[in-house]
Amino acid sequence: MSLGRVRFCNPIIMGIFWAIWVCPWLCLASPGNLHGNKRNMQWRRSSASKEILQCNVYDGEWVWDDSYPLYDSGNCPHIRKEFDCLKYGRPYKDYLKYRWQPKSCDLPRFDGKNFLTEFKGKKIMFIGDSVTLNHWQSLVCLLHSAAPQSEIVQYTNGSITTYTFQEFEVSVIIHQSMYLVDIDDEKIGRVLKLDSIKSGEIWKNMDVLVFNTWLWWYRKGEKQPWDYIQVGEEIVKDMDRMAAFQKALTTWANWVNEDIDPTTTKVIFTGISPSHYNGMDWNETKVTNCSRETEPVSGSTYPSGLPQALYAVKDVLKTITKPIHLLDITLLSQLRKDAHPSSYNAFRGMDCTHWCVAGLPDTWNLLLYTALQNWNSIHTTV
Ligand SMILES: *[C@@H]1O[C@H](CO)[C@@H](O)[C@H](O)[C@H]1NC(C)=O
Ligand SMILES: *[C@@H]1O[C@H](CO)[C@@H](O)[C@H](O)[C@H]1NC(C)=O
Ligand SMILES: *[C@@H]1O[C@H](CO)[C@@H](O)[C@H](O)[C@H]1NC(C)=O
């Protein structure tokens, strides 16, 4: 019996709760759906969902698809200067044409109208670093392209920016947080507190939470945004960074275990987004950046193997007792050495860390959409 049921054992509350929450999630994904409107029929007819239940959607390869990209980035006015590759003159456009093909099933096509309708009144928050911002921007563009006339109201408060699709009352929110845990200004300086996660109070109010953190854990010198690390009562100048990462994730996992009500909030953790600066990783020994990469690595394996950080993530996710989903984009992103901005951004700086929008993050969102559609069946994939 899930915790949610224990809390909502009063039959009246249970009934209301069922009607408002469980039914829409369950019924949309289940074949025996009573709400036989056109939208759901389409979902049913595709029979994708049944198939997907037995399929590891993260095991597959990139295939050419003439119908891609999913939208024209020129029509999305919300793309930041860092990610708007076509606008900044990227000449090789093949990167837009690849579709992720799982080995044993087909993914549904991203249906932005369906997404907006299904998530009416809901708040979807992405929490993490600039790669997470990248991910969020792609979703904004995917939804905008599905409903270009729908007004988007934008609101920023500190590190949180909310885009609300007015007509659908859907809010897609980014909370920029490099480490998920806190950095506090104290007398001695900026302290990264591996045991402290104050933002949980904000996150609890969301319907969908998409977390990520990785990029900043190995930053040193000028780029390191803290002076000390605190673990428990102990304050240190530095420590093993992988251990720090794992400690912070554990704090986050404990927060999920204690504070998330799975009947109201779905929790997703996005895997490790890889960079492409070291050609050794993909068997091109002398290459030191992604500037000449025009096609994905073919097949389903990446020469360097999976990053250690992903194993750390999986270890921590195993300790979570609530339903959560690992959006396991690591391997499929490793294969996409061609999908970074390289120097096609407003700054002309070499960027093989972030991703062009439109581009790879659209696939992350397609997989996010698939996970949410099939929530009751596929949440434990760790
Ligand atoms: C902005 O965020 C702060 C901190 O989370 C909160 O206390 C404040 O109420 C917010 N302001 C508005 C206008 O929402
Ligand atoms: C990488 O190079 C090694 C050694 O030359 C080779 O065995 C392997 O098949 C290559 N892998 C890919 C993906 O090209
Ligand atoms: C990127 O790589 C190319 C060739 O692989 C090299 O000529 C160029 O200097 C590199 N650029 C940067 C900014 O590292």
Primary descriptors:
382 residues, seven-stranded mixed β-sheet, four-stranded mixed β-sheet, 12 helices, 31% helix, binds 2-acetamido-2-deoxy-beta-D-glucopyranose
SSE blueprint:
Layout: H1 3-7, H2 11-29, H3 38-46, H4 48-53, E1 60-64, E2 98-102, H5 112-118, E3 123-128, H6 130-146, E4 152-157, E5 160-165, E6 170-176, E7 182-186, E8 189-193, H7 200-203, E9 208-211, E10 228-231, E11 234-236, H8 241-259, E12 266-270, H9 308-317, E13 324-327, H10 330-334, H11 360-373, H12 375-378
Parallel strand pairs: 3-6, 3-9, 8-10, 9-12, 12-13
Antiparallel strand pairs: 1-2, 4-5, 5-6, 7-8, 10-11
The structure holds 2-acetamido-2-deoxy-beta-D-glucopyranose (3 copies).
One 2-acetamido-2-deoxy-beta-D-glucopyranose (NAG) binds at residues 283, 303.
Write up this protein:
The structure is a single chain. The protein is of the alpha/beta class and 382 residues long. The protein is built from 12 helices and 13 strands. The chain has helices spanning 3-7, 11-29, 38-46, 48-53, 112-118, 130-146, 200-203, 241-259, 308-317, 330-334, 360-373, 375-378, and strands spanning 60-64, 98-102, 123-128, 152-157, 160-165, 170-176, 182-186, 189-193, 208-211, 228-231, 234-236, 266-270, 324-327. The strands form 3 sheets. A 7-stranded mixed beta sheet has the order 4-5-6-3-9-12-13, with helices on one face. Strands 7-8-10-11 form a 4-stranded mixed beta sheet, with no helix packed on it. A two-stranded antiparallel ribbon has the order 1-2. Helix 5 (112-118) packs across helix 6 and helix 6 crosses helix 11 (360-373). The longest helix has 19 residues, at 11-29. The chain is globular, with a radius of gyration of 21 Å. It starts with a helix and ends with a helix. Mean pLDDT is 88; it is low at 1-47. One 2-acetamido-2-deoxy-beta-D-glucopyranose is lined by residues 283, 303. One 2-acetamido-2-deoxy-beta-D-glucopyranose (NAG) is lined by residues 157-158.
